[in-house]
Amino acid sequence: MKIILPDKTIQEKTGDPVSISRILDQIGIHPAEVIVSRNGILVPEDAVAGGDDEIRIIRIAHGG
Amino acid sequence: MTQGDSVAGNAGRCLLCSEPPVIRMNNPDRHLCAAHLVAEIEERAARTIRERELIKPHDRIAVAFSGGKDSTALLVILSRLLPAWEDVSLVAITVDEGIAGYRDDTIRAAEEVTKKLRIDHICVSFKDLIGDDLDTLLVGRETQACSVCGILRRKALSVAAHNAGATKIATGHNLDDEAQSVLMNTLRGDLPRLVRTSDADSSDCFIPRIKPLADISEKEIAAYLFVQDLFPFLPECPYTRYALRAEVRTMLSAMEQKHPGTMRNLIKSKKTIEKYADRGAMSEPLRRCQECGDPCSRELCQVCMLVKSLGK
């Protein structure tokens, strides 16, 4: 599984499928501050990812 | 993995159809697909407008449009709701504060959106208003960025809205912003600001401000835009790190995660205080600024005080 972080750096993860919330927790990102896509499609945090999935974590920028 | 099989538990489908969910909403806890998320967000904005009577026939709405996610969502939603209102028009106003490496991108994004939606677009700058850009004004006083910017931005917006013939100014403040403001005003001990009414006020001196997205969370707004390919991938304001709001935001996000409903409860408490507070006893009577004649509560308005303090 490929994880693209908000700063565009990439992490590769192997192993059993895992929930998005677990991935965020492991990276130390608060779920309220990001949205997450799996293979280009937005998913909720209780969605599960693994295998060849590409996870993209998008920070919700604030300040107008 | 296929979408439908890859959400934990029984939540692999939208609550309202068989499509895969894109978001998990709370209060109540439910999963929604892209189409039902879009429909729900637009309906909630419409309900806020209806219940608080934010827009009336013949209004000309100036939308404070930075090109960021909140104001983009606001403009998209208002443009879709427009046909339901009698003789209501929109104009988008972008304020160019002059922030290097940030504002140029958002202005470009703003221009693209207004062109696509066919909405009149006006851009005004701090340089036009006060003779300098924000970066220059803030040299050596970066920690005051948000208060300096806020005062000048409000003024620039008011002037542009007035010149555009607007009867209301709509801003993209969302549920998170509103909850953060309640907590910030409490932390500052600023009761007059805390009880300032959150709905369109009827003051004759100011163009009333409305917040149609006040019932929608920041994350819901981001998701609403993303599923429609409208999410603006833009940088964050470089001055954000100096703001008290940034600390409050992180704290409240953590609280909301741990105790869902925290943000709504904060807003509810503000509304309760608003109901019982004697605003007249807490705020200064309205006067006219001795320099510019604008309505204010002291001898000078905030803009004129700021201009003096900047030695301009």
Question: How would you summarize what this structure contains?
Answer:
The complex is a heterodimer of chains A (64) and B (312). Chain A is mainly β and 64 residues long.
Question: Could you outline the blueprint of secondary structure elements for this entry?
Answer:
The complex is a heterodimer of chains A (64) and B (312).
Chain A: E1 2-4, E2 10-12, E3 18-19, H1 20-27, E4 34-38, E5 41-43, E6 48-49, E7 54-59
Parallel strand pairs in A: 1-7
Antiparallel strand pairs in A: 1-2, 3-6, 4-5, 4-7
Chain B: E1 23-25, E2 30-32, H1 34-51, E3 60-64, H2 69-81, E4 89-96, H3 103-117, E5 120-125, H4 126-130, H5 134-137, H6 145-163, E6 168-170, H7 175-188, H8 191-194, E7 209-210, H9 218-226, H10 244-258, H11 262-276, H12 279-282, E8 287-288, E9 295-296, H13 302-309
Parallel strand pairs in B: 3-4, 3-6, 4-5, 6-7
Antiparallel strand pairs in B: 1-2, 8-9
Helix pairs in contact in B: 1-9, 2-3, 2-9, 7-10, 7-11
Structural class from helices and strands of chain B? alpha/beta
The percent range for strand residues of chain B is: 5-15%
**Mean pLDDT figure of chain A:** 92
Query: Strand sequence of the main sheet of chain A, in spatial order?
Result: 2-1-7-4-5
Strand order of the largest sheet of chain B: 5-4-3-6-7
3D shape of chain A:
globular
Order of helices and strands of chain B: EEHEHEHEHHHEHHEHHHHEEH
User: Helicity level of chain A, as a percent range?
Assistant: 10-25%
| Relevant CATH superfamily of the largest domain in chain B | HUPs
Oligomer: heterodimer
As residue ranges, the low-confidence spans of chain A are none
Q: Tell me the CATH superfamily of chain A.
A: Beta-grasp domain
Q: Report how far apart the termini of chain A are.
A: 34 Å
Profile the largest sheet of chain A.
Answer: 5 strands, mixed
CATH class of the largest domain in chain B: Alpha Beta
- The arrangement of helices and strands of chain A along the chain is EEEHEEEE
- Radius of gyration of chain A (Å): 11 Å
